[in-house]
Specification:
CATH architecture of the domain at 5-152 and 180-206 and 260-266: 3-Layer(aba) Sandwich
CATH class of the domain at 5-152 and 180-206 and 260-266: Alpha Beta
Helix content: 25-40%
CATH topology of the domain at 5-152 and 180-206 and 260-266: Rossmann fold
Distance between the termini: 28 Å
Organism: Kitasatospora arboriphila
Protein name: Methyltransferase domain-containing protein
CATH superfamily of the domain at 5-152 and 180-206 and 260-266: Vaccinia Virus protein VP39
Strand content: 15-25%
Oligomer: single chain
Number of strands: 7
Pfam families: Methyltransf_11 (PF08241)
Domain Methyltransferase type: 56-147
Order of helices and strands: HEHEEEHEHHEHHHE
Largest sheet: 7 strands, mixed
Strand order of the largest sheet: 3-2-1-4-5-7-6
GO molecular function: methyltransferase activity
Number of helices: 8
């Protein structure tokens, strides 16, 4: 996601739980992309993605959004930044450039862009407000910032189903190991307005937890990869976690997935 573990409080995303070099990690990331790329693309088009536009993609992951910007939206330039670019490098060329960098480093300054996008990045950063302000600084006058992160809609309240217990334990495990915090993400519109952006808006997308859906498969893989940390929280038992996994696999969870909140604004 473009953050150096040495610069975070609890270790870096990818190092503690989801190592990019582990088999299947690229496929896990792509499951999330399948669930949310449609929403992201629509919002980026509304923000002006297209010919002649210079784009900065932060925490580019496997590059599904960066490649779309360069190859289908027709952007003039796409700089895809991540701390680990192994999934990006095979696609570099033409309008798409890659950069391995820590976006929280004081000397990180990739230039100025017409469109800056980051998805599932700020939720993993201890000082999300400061990083959001830095991203605003990468905008050219009139440029647009589009940010996306997870929003949790169900796990805080009853009923205590195995699925909800597993989700609560997962969020606790992510917070205790890599510093992930999604409690603040509903404040995105206010944050962007306070940072001086105009034309601020936000929306929430919640893909269905149906059997075999990309988002159901994403959470199944995420739970399995983080199982020791999830169980260590004490918020879910091994049997409850197995029952939660079965509910996701069979499409019987009868609940909401954590969603994607996307917020945007324009630099004056």
């Amino acid at each position: 996601m473009g953050v150096d573990p040495a610069r975070t409080e609890r270790g870096g995303y990818g190092e503690a739980l989801f190592e990019p070099w582990q088999p299947g990690e690229g496929e896990r990331i792509d499951l999330g992309a399948l669930a949310y790329d449609g929403t992201t693309r629509r919002r980026l088009l509304a923000a002006g993605a297209g010919p002649g536009v210079r784009c900065l993609e932060i925490g580019a992951g496997t590059g599904t959004v960066a490649r779309w910007l360069a190859e289908e939206a027709g952007a003039a330039e796409v700089l895809a930044v991540d701390r680990d670019v192994r999934f990006l490098e095979p696609h570099a060329g033409g309008a798409l450039r890659t950069l391995a960098a820590d976006i929280t480093a004081p000397d990180f300054d990739p230039g100025r862009f017409d469109l800056v996008h980051a998805r599932f990045v700020l939720m993993h950063v201890p000082d999300h407000r400061r990083l959001a302000a830095r991203l605003c600084g990468f905008l050219a006058p009139g440029g647009r910032l589009v940010l996306g992160d997870a929003v949790d809609l169900t796990s805080a309240g009853p009923p205590d189903t195995p699925y909800r217990l597993a989700m609560r334990a997962m969020w606790r495990a992510l917070r205790e190991t890599i510093g992930t915090d999604v409690t603040w993400t509903p404040q995105y519109p206010r944050l962007l307005a306070e940072l001086g952006l105009t034309d601020v808006g936000a929306e929430i997308t919640v893909p269905p937890l149906t059997r075999g859906s990309p988002i159901a498969e994403f959470w199944l893989d995420t739970w399995r990869r983080s199982r020791p940390a999830v169980l260590a929280t004490g918020l879910v038992t091994p049997d409850q976690l197995i029952r939660a996994e079965r509910a996701l696999a069979e499409g019987t969870a009868a609940d909401l997935s954590p969603g994607l909140i996307t917020a945007w604004g324009r630099r004056g």
